[in-house]
């Protein structure tokens, strides 16, 4: 599917989300070298890191997402520090042994539904990292008790103003425990000041992972797990942790 028709909604949904920024700021501060963000969207994380003087490359498959990111970088005077690449994270050619830190923020890795796709992405990143490079994956932490309640019922998720119009976002999620797959529907109802209503519907799947499955997946791709956290405050990963954050290094 194309994410282009939803790029402006995605930007409005997430541009004020800052919970993970202290984590990436600290990791970037400790890193001596260029940074790589995969599935970078509209540049939510790229911009604050560039503003702190880091050199970054952002990759996304959506030209519209990258267009918004580029406009934001240009407006902030940060375009010289960030290279934006349009392409598929599974196959895009990246410079070998170049990046000191790579990361995939807020569940984006979960768009890769199969082990083959996950390994293709991870192997591609591994080739692009230096020998001492680090990879960070920030994932949803699956709790079967919550997943059982995701039965495709439609709920109003949020409302906001966008380009002078009023937007209502509705969400329905149907999760299957056997396949570890969530089928997600977003409905955006956008109403103009004159009352004209435009509805756009987006369907996509998210594949969740469990901790040891993730560790084995990283090992198959040539990584070794360094740390596993359950929150952006770097709490230990335990039952009930809101996040599953893996920090992995390139295996020798």
UniProtKB/TrEMBL annotation:
Coiled-coil segments: none
Residues of the Methyltransferase domain: 36-133
GO molecular function, one term: methyltransferase activity
Pfam families: Methyltransf_25
Keywords: Methyltransferase, Transferase
GO process terms (BP): methylation
Signal sequence range: none
Protein name: Class I SAM-dependent methyltransferase
């Amino acid at each position: 599917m194309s994410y282009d028709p939803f790029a402006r909604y995605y930007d409005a949904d997430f541009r004020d989300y800052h919970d993970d920024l202290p984590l990436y700021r600290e990791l970037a501060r400790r890193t001596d070298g260029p940074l790589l963000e995969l599935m970078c969207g509209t540049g939510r994380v790229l911009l604050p890191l560039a503003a702190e003087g880091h050199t970054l490359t952002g990759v996304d498959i959506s030209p519209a997402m990258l267009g918004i990111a580029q406009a934001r970088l240009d407006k902030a005077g940060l375009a010289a520090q960030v290279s934006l690449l349009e392409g598929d994270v599974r196959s895009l050619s990246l410079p070998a042994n170049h990046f000191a830190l790579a990361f995939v923020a807020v569940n984006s890795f979960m768009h890769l539904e199969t082990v083959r796709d996950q390994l293709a992405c991870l192997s591609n990143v591994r080739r692009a990292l230096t020998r001492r490079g680090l990879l960070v994956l920030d994932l949803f932490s699956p709790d079967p008790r919550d997943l059982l309640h995701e039965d495709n019922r439609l709920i109003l998720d949020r409302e906001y103003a966008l380009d002078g119009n009023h937007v209502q976002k509705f969400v329905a999620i149907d999760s299957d425990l056997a396949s570890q797959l969530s089928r997600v529907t977003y409905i955006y109802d956008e109403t103009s000041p004159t009352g004209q209503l435009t509805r756009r519907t987006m369907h996509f799947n998210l594949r969740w992972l469990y901790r040891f499955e993730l560790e084995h997946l990283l090992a198959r791709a040539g990584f070794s797990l360094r740390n596993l956290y359950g929150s952006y405050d770097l709490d230990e990963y335990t039952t009930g942790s809101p996040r599953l954050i893996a920090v992995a290094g390139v295996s020798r």
